[in-house]
Design goal:
713 residues; alpha+beta; Beta Polymerase, domain 2; 4 domains; 5-stranded mixed beta sheet; 20 strands; globular; guanosine-3',5'-bis(diphosphate) 3'-diphosphatase activity
């Protein structure tokens, strides 16, 4: 191809191409290489090498994955638009529209990469996702590009090394894992680990090297025993010992608080056979050779991982009690395990049908696009994505037997959203393995899950504290934001109307003309945003009312009476009941506009709102609507004798009076050792309902004293 120090790299690259492309395609790639070499002439990398060595290395990685000529051409030219005078139009004329689009997609990703802020990184990832959705080859080229940059990161400044390594660990390694590039995923993790924690990396690498020598004899012995057993079973198999990659050993040490000497299974063994029946026959033969460790067997052939990975995993008791991890797979599965999506590339095939791995990847991309459309900003989107890239998965069944893959720690709510957004939105309970279970139940592989829905039920803000998938989290947040905005607008309207009545009792509705004038004068986007701000306590209704009346030419009258706002308790997110005094219908109440929280209802005698630092202008006159019609929380303190079954007796009485127990807390009653202090949080309809509950509790012989808790601080 050409003389000079890069001669070997160039000839190796073209040797790889000749192994699977025809001569015409190789000639096209030769032209692309020469074009790139001329375009980058005079440019050098930080390491001092000619710049063309980088695109060549990226294309060479893609050639190992047997990617198509368009992707290889784009890899060779991926920096020319960004770093040289060459235009997209020129590329299109010389190499075709598909190549020009791929290069353009990659160039757009590069433009923002130099910024280190979280927001910029998030925006970069969002752009990458949209580019991937157009053509998945963009991410494969991008990952090959990142892999070569990580391999040559030593020439960079330490600060830049750390930033690039962190981004690689957070985003690129998990994406490589998610699309099944297992070998790349492990190498990216190890390289990131090396630059993020250089000292730990060196110490661990040294320890593994020493252990390798000490354990070589043991590994050879196990390897020989496995090969002999499979031969006896008349199975054709390739057996190899493999060392776990450094970062996975480090993670295990961290998660399980182990020293290196305690991590016994730094070696695993891989058995590659001809077909699926042979996988199970090999498993049986190995279980007869060494006893399997219970609970350590996973069948990823029957239930493949979300990224298409298939294998049988088993852990055995080896010689001297050493645990041995063994993976058993067919050669086709091995190809998928190492190269994932790239190993199934189908751009050369005439039919547009997608294989299983590509279908899974497209589904994953579609899910990310759904999350992207609902996330308010790029940083929030990135948070969802990081959740969604978790590598560990649990596999659960729908009532119809469909298998769903969810991240470790996923709950019944995550399952509900995975089935369908509407099921997640309206879920109220779950049946796990035919038994009713709370929605926060964490699922385990093999669980059969059925969701109970109610058309009148909606997401609860508390769900955000335990859901594990990006999809569930983004849908819940989106719903809460939409609902809170709508409810805040309605509450803001009521508060503004009340304030207008104070200043001008006979005043009707504010005209559109006055609204337009007021919004324009105050630089506000629209009426709904202003009303939502009032409802959320970000603006005072009195100030807005005064401004609107003055815009209308009406002099505000200070002497009018304030009409109270009726409170029903159904106002949800725009209204809260104070946790310091737990007001219930029948109590005298007052509202307080708390910035960002909206209207908070307190009892009129609550010490919190009578503090000297409370702004009295933010107090709002409220009253209970006669048809409140829901249950309200209230605290009850009980001193009871320390007898067996006392809690059950009290709970039974509360339940008989149609009251629910939300929370219960027991502690010793210091004044009298034979008595217990029990603090209940119960739900009642109103004061009369509470009085009935208290009356029945007083009648219990075990109850010494009880009272409603007045101040909960």
């Amino acid at each position: 191809m050409q003389g000079g120090p890069m001669d070997k790299d160039v000839s190796d690259f073209f040797d790889k191409l000749a192994a699977y492309l025809d001569s015409e395609e190789v000639a096209q790639l030769d032209a692309a290489y020469r074009f790139g070499e001329v375009a980058h002439e005079g440019q050098f990398r930080k390491s001092g090498e000619p710049y063309i060595s980088h695109p060549l290395a990226v294309a060479s990685i893609l050639a190992d994955w047997r990617m198509d000529p368009q992707a290889l051409t784009a890899a060779l030219l991926h920096d020319v638009v960004e770093d040289t005078p060459v235009t997209k139009q020129e590329l299109q004329e010389l190499f075709g529209k598909a190549v020009a689009d791929l290069v353009d997609g990659l160039s757009k990703l590069e433009r923002i990469e130099l910024q280190s802020q979280e927001e910029a990184q998030a925006e970069n990832f969002r752009k990458m996702l949209l580019a991937m959705a157009r053509d998945i080859r963009i991410i494969l080229i991008k990952i090959a590009d990142r892999l070569h940059n990580m391999r040559t990161l030593g020439a960079m400044h330490p600060d830049k090394q750390k930033r690039i390594a962190r981004e690689t660990m957070d985003i690129y390694a998990p994406i490589a894992n998610r699309i099944g590039l297992n070998a790349v995923y492990q190498e990216l993790e190890d390289l990131s680990f090396r630059y993020l924690h250089p000292n730990r990396y060196q110490v661990l690498a040294k320890a593994v090297k020493a252990a390798r020598g000490n354990r070589r004899q043991l590994v050879d012995k196990i390897l020989g025993a496995i090969q002999q057993r499979l031969q006896d079973a008349r199975l054709q198999a390739q057996v190899s010992g493999r060392e776990k990659h450094l970062y996975s050993i480090y993670k295990k040490m961290q998660e399980k608080h182990l020293s290196f000497s305690e991590v016994l299974d730094i070696y695993g063994f891989r058995v590659i056979v001809n077909d699926i029946p042979s996988c199970y026959l090999a498993l049986g033969a190995l279980h007869a050779l060494y006893k399997p460790i219970p609970g350590k067997f996973k069948d990823y052939i029957a239930i493949a991982k979300a990224n298409g990975y298939q294998s049988l995993h088993t852990t055995l008791f080896g010689p001297y009690g050493t645990p041995i991890e063994v993976q058993i797979r067919s050669s086709e599965m091995h190809q998928t395990a190492e190269d994932g999506l790239a190993s199934h590339w189908m751009y050369k095939s005439a039919e547009g049908n997608l294989n299983d791995v590509q279908q899974r990847t497209h589904k994953w991309l579609q899910r990310l696009l759904d999350i992207q459309s609902e996330s308010g900003d790029a940083a929030e989107f990135l948070e969802h994505i990081k959740v969604d890239l978790f590598p560990d998965e649990v596999y659960v069944f729908t009532p119809k037997g469909r298998i769903l893959a969810l991240p470790q720690g996923a709950t019944a709510i995550d399952f509900a959203y995975a089935v369908h957004t509407d099921i997640g939105t309206h879920c109220v309970a779950a049946r796990v393995n035919f038994e009713l279970a709370p929605l926060r139940t964490r699922l385990r592989s093999g669980d059969r899950v059925e969701i109970v829905t109610d058309p009148n039920a909606y997401p609860n803000p508390s769900w955000l504290s335990f859901v594990a998938t990006g999809k569930a989290r983004s849908h819940i947040r989106h719903y809460l934001k939409t609902m809170q905005f709508g409810e805040s607008v309605r509450l803001g309207e009521r508060l503004l109307q009340q304030a207008l009545q104070v200043f001008s009792p006979r005043h009707g509705a504010v005209s559109d003309h006055v609204w337009e004038h007021y919004l324009r004068e105050n630089g506000l986007p629209d009426k709904a945003d202003l009303l939502a701000d009032i409802g959320l306590g970000k603006r005072l209704s009195m100030v807005v009312a005064r401004g609107l009346l003055m815009a209308e030419g009406i002099e505000p009258n200070e002497a009018s009476n304030l009409s109270a706002i009726p409170i029903r308790g159904w106002e949800n997110m725009a209204l809260q009941f104070a946790k310091c005094c737990y007001p219930i219908p029948g109590d005298n109440i007052v509202g307080f506009i708390n910035k960002g929280q909206g209207l908070v209802i307190h009892t009129a005698d609550c010490p919190v709102i009578h503090r000297s630092d409370v702004d009295q202008d933010k107090l709002v006159d409220v009253e209970w609507d006669p048809v409140a019609g829901r249950l309200f929380e209230v605290g009850v303190d009980i001193i009871a004798s320390n007898d067996r079954g006392v809690l059950a007796q009290i709970a039974a009485v509360i339940s008989e009076q149609n009251s629910n127990i939300v929370n219960v807390h027991l502690e010793e009653f210091e004044e009298r050792p034979n008595f217990t202090s029990i603090r209940f949080l119960i739900q009642v309809e109103h004061r009369q309902h509470l009085a009935t509950v208290l009356r029945h509790l007083r009648a219990l012989p075990v109850v010494e004293r009880l009272q409603r808790r007045r101040n909960h601080h």
